[in-house]
Amino acid sequence: MMRETNFGMEAGHGYSKFDDDGRIKRTGTLMTTSAHIITAVIGSGVLSLAWALAQLGWIAGPISLVGFSLMTWFTSILLADCYRNADGTRNYTYMDVVKSNLGGMKIQLCGIAQYSNLIGVTIGYSITTSISMVAIKRSNCFHKHGQQEGCHEKNNDFIILFGVIQIILSQIPNFHKLSVLSLVAAVMSFAYSSIGIALSIAKIAGGDGHAETGLTGIPVGENQSSVDKMWNTFSAFGNIAFAYAFSNVLIEIQDTVKSGQPENTVMKKATLIAISISTLFYMLCGIGGYAAFGNKAPGNFLTGFGFYNPFWLVDLANVCIVVHLLGAYQVFCQPIFGFIEKWSNEKWARSKFITKEYPIGMPFCGNFNFSFFRLIWRTTYVIFTTVLAMLFPFFNDFVGLLGAASFWPLTVYFPIEMYISKAKIPKFSFTWIWMQILSLICFTISLLAAAGSVRGLIKSLQTFKPFNSVS
Prior knowledge:
Largest sheet: 2 strands, antiparallel
Mean pLDDT: 81
Low-confidence stretches: 1-15
Distance between the termini: 67 Å
Order of helices and strands: EEHHHHHHHHHHHEEHHH
Shape: globular
Radius of gyration: 23 Å
Oligomer: single chain
Structural class: mainly alpha
Number of strands: 4
Strand content: under 5%
């Protein structure tokens, strides 16, 4: 009886554990792909949208939300079409796509932009999760002792706790095994967004006093100079850009789609579904939060204690944030893990420490492949991000900087340039010109947003003591 050992195909059965390129068979569907995107998109960025709208106002705020969503959707379509090469071969990572379509120094530039952003996002998620954990404890303290109590807590213990949990979750081998975690995380993102919207509506309907809002946001006056207004506006653009950031993991998500149907078709449908849902929630959270709090909107509208009651519902929202970010952290970590492990396997192919895996039977889960190298390297990475999160626990400015730094290169520039190359669009043609103009506009916005966030970080660092963050 013949057996194809390389691809696991058994004669008479017609079944293989592997795809036609020898890699593990993909199992992703439209639902799981949409869940991965929603998990990546609806993250901590949604929590700062009320603050962003307070800086931009009723005109520029909603326009910016819609504009960034349309731009992300458009460039995601371009990127999805670059997944397969002209000869039908697959590109497994974002860097592979850049290598196939652009080559040269742009591969290294893409790698720097993508992986520095992924590292930054995981640090940002560690910060955000600790803030939500602290908010739960503070909420219960307020309920017991009254709102006049400070009930301040240090963030560091909670950042460490999050890190310990991530050390365990980081042993999940790859994206293909994250489907259940992503589905749970996606449900959690809907849950806390919905709670935030409901609390905003209740606050507006409760008649606690009319919140002061404006067409152009917080006015220049006693509490804000014209220079501060300008920089905060730039930072707000960065916060909105971060809220839509997922291009840095798009190709890796697309690589989970099972064979049998064009991956780009599935990805385009999933992207449209996920971004449409995300934008709806963003509009409701941003507009609802701004209407509820006005120009005094906190930087994080579920942990900044604009809401105190019902305290159990605020606690539930923050629990949902914690559970969501447990999964989202892994979505953004997997490309980093995959890159390092692939490089290590190629460089030290004969090392059993690097390549050897030990199957361990897990109840209800089948075999789990354990690797000593994966355990040590991934644990080291989580500890690294945990320490940096304890050093720089600044939510809004950190989020704004991440959004600004990644939006133009990863969401706009590379997808446009690769599509131009793949479609062989002539230089200085009408399509080439308007795409370049679009890229230039986005580059300018990203540059201004980065400048605003850097200024905010510098101001925060002037009064900050390392490893002594208090919420």
